[in-house]
């Protein structure tokens, strides 16, 4: 089962949340920029068009995949769950974060030598992004 509306709105919500969380216009985003080394890239404007396409293209594809996966998980749980659709969608998003997104983010960040603070930041940002996808699924279903 595929739902275009949930996928579209979930992807847009994911992009907005992730763009705001990683944007260095506030303390949280400035911390990320400093810890990840993006502060230097942004100061010198060395980010090429190809880098931007790769970054935002990956964010869009990630949003599509996460929204679709979350919707599939929620549909599966909704058949066997007595909770309301919103609660089921939030639980499904949490399980997707715990079982897939969080584990992959943690392993990749740790093995690439990122600081513990940066690993935590990525985990929190991913959790908030998936939480918003869960809300989109819960309200649009």
TrEMBL record:
<keyword id="KW-0812">Transmembrane</keyword>
<dbReference type="Pfam" id="PF08570">
    <property type="entry name" value="DUF1761"/>
</dbReference>
<keyword id="KW-1133">Transmembrane helix</keyword>
<feature type="transmembrane region" description="Helical">
    <location>
        <begin position="52"/>
        <end position="74"/>
    </location>
</feature>
<keyword id="KW-0472">Membrane</keyword>
<feature type="transmembrane region" description="Helical">
    <location>
        <begin position="6"/>
        <end position="25"/>
    </location>
</feature>
<protein>
    <submittedName>
        <fullName>DUF1761 domain-containing protein</fullName>
    </submittedName>
</protein>
<feature type="transmembrane region" description="Helical">
    <location>
        <begin position="118"/>
        <end position="140"/>
    </location>
</feature>
<feature type="transmembrane region" description="Helical">
    <location>
        <begin position="94"/>
        <end position="111"/>
    </location>
</feature>
<dbReference type="InterPro" id="IPR013879">
    <property type="entry name" value="DUF1761"/>
</dbReference>
């Amino acid at each position: 089962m595929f739902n275009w509306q949930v996928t579209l709105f979930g992807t847009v919500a994911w992009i907005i949340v992730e763009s705001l969380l990683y944007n260095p216009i506030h303390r949280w985003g400035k911390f990320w920029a400093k810890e990840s080394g993006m502060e230097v890239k942004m100061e010198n404007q060395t980010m090429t068009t190809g880098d931007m396409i790769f970054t935002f293209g990956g964010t869009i594809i990630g949003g599509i995949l996460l929204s679709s996966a979350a919707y599939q998980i929620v549909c599966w749980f909704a058949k066997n769950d007595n909770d309301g659709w919103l609660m089921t969608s939030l639980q499904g998003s949490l399980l997707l974060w715990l079982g897939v997104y969080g584990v992959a983010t943690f392993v990749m960040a740790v093995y690439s030598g990122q600081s513990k603070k940066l690993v935590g930041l990525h985990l929190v940002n991913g959790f908030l992004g998936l939480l918003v996808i869960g809300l989109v699924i819960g309200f649009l279903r």
